[in-house]
């Protein structure tokens, strides 16, 4: 009898339930009645606190299209459960204890960078772990794609499309703030898909004068509106030159935490035009997964079941060149996949005359 645990950790996104379904259905298909699956509640928190429940085959039905996660989620245990343990090792020990008590053969974790760092830690501690790459940010090293990305991209592209119609009607400058944490994948793709005129990414620190020059250029050519897609993690050239400590302090002191409003204020000082800001926020992570994410999660979920049947552990199931491949957790942990300023997508944007503010 195989006993498999499954948990979802970190910020939720579209496709989590679809991935859970794929893992569950593929395990039952492979092992028939010779498998028990346990859903661990609220991510690693449930593993620390021993909160889990046995799942039945019917639990994996009817969830393909549903957003969020039926298992619940939480951010990293090292931040959340400080009151239980001050010492990280104790938390790891608690997780190991729960794993042992449950008699698991493997734990499947669905999550982003923080989740995979912890997954690698548990793997180094001798637990059998398999990771599935989840995040709208698409910033996990070792995989070309993370699930959630394309679904969020659909949402934010739709937002930009809708902003376009109102921006053209009123002849306004619109600044749309896109999620993505410290990387610009979502903003870059949404900006290209939505036909943004200016795209500001964390990886290419912006100069407000270049942005204003672009707005002036458009106005002179008779275009009365402009759309700026700005990544929530975007930084100015001036900020990029600061030391890490100074930068952190400056950000901590800021009255306006939203970059879109800050960029709007900076533009207002140099460009006399009506400006509006749109911050879609968590809308981007909500709702049903798009078809791509349904197929992708089905592919990686079934691949996780295959690895389990082969007793291959310590891997994240990744997409590389459209092949599903296992990548060692040790290679994934602690790295960030950023947009390269020389990437094909950025070069494509520049060919179209899109301004990256540098
Ligand atoms: O990592 C996914 C993400 O949506 C980021 O794009 C964003 O910065 C962050 O999570 C928001 O976190 P929270 O849901 O905790 O507000």
UniProtKB/TrEMBL annotation:
Chief subcellular location: cytoplasm
Name the cofactor(s).
Mg(2+)
Fetch the Pfam families from UniProt: PFK
Please state what class of enzyme this protein is. Answer: transferase
EC number(s) stated in the UniProt entry for this protein: 2.7.1.11
Q: Which GO terms describe its cellular component?
A: 6-phosphofructokinase complex
What are the binding positions for ATP in this chain? 11, 75-76, 112-115
Residues in Phosphofructokinase domain copies: 3-308
Family per similarity comment: Belongs to the phosphofructokinase type A (PFKA) family. Mixed-substrate PFK group III subfamily.
On subunit structure and binding partners, the annotation says:
Homodimer or homotetramer.
Name the chain's protein: ATP-dependent 6-phosphofructokinase
Task: Read off the lineage from the record.
Answer: Bacteria, Bacillati, Bacillota, Clostridia, Monoglobales
């Amino acid at each position: 009898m195989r006993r498999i645990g499954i948990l979802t950790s970190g910020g939720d996104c579209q496709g989590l339930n679809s991935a859970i379904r794929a893992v569950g259905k593929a395990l039952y298909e492979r092992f028939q009645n010779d498998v028990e699956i346990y859903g661990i509640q609220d991510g690693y928190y449930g593993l620390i606190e021993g909160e889990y429940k046995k799942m039945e085959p019917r639990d994996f039905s009817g969830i393909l299209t549903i957003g969020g996660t039926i298992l619940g989620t939480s951010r990293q245990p090292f931040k959340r459960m400080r009151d239980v343990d001050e010492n990280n090792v104790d938390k790891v020990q608690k997780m190991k204890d729960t794993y042992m008590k449950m008699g698991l053969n493997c734990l499947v974790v669905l999550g982003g960078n923080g989740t995979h760092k912890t997954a690698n830690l548990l793997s180094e501690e001798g637990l059998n772990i398999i990771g599935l790459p989840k995040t709208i940010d698409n910033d996990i090293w070792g995989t070309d794609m993370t699930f959630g990305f394309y679904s969020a991209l659909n949402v934010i592209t739709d937002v930009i499309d809708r902003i376009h119609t109102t921006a053209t009607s009123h002849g306004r400058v619109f600044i749309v703030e896109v999620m993505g944490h410290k990387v610009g994948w979502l903003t870059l793709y949404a900006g290209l898909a939505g036909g943004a005129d200016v795209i500001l990414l964390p990886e290419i620190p912006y100069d407000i004068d270049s942005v204003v020059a672009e707005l002036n250029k458009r106005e002179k050519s008779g275009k009365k509106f402009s759309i700026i897609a700005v990544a929530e993690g975007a930084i100015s050239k001036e900020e990029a030159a600061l030391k890490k400590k100074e930068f952190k302090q400056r950000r901590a002191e800021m009255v306006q935490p939203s970059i879109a409003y800050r960029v709007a204020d900076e533009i207002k000082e140099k460009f006399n035009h009506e400006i509006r800001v749109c911050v879609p926020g968590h809308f981007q992570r909500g709702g049903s997964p798009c078809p791509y994410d349904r197929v992708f999660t089905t592919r990686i979920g079934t691949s996780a079941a295959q690895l389990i049947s082969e007793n291959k552990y310590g891997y994240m199931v990744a997409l590389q060149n459209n092949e599903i491949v296992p990548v060692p957790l040790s290679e994934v942990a602690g790295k960030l996949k950023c947009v390269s300023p020389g990437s094909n997508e950025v070069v494509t944007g520049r060919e179209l005359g899109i301004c990256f503010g540098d």
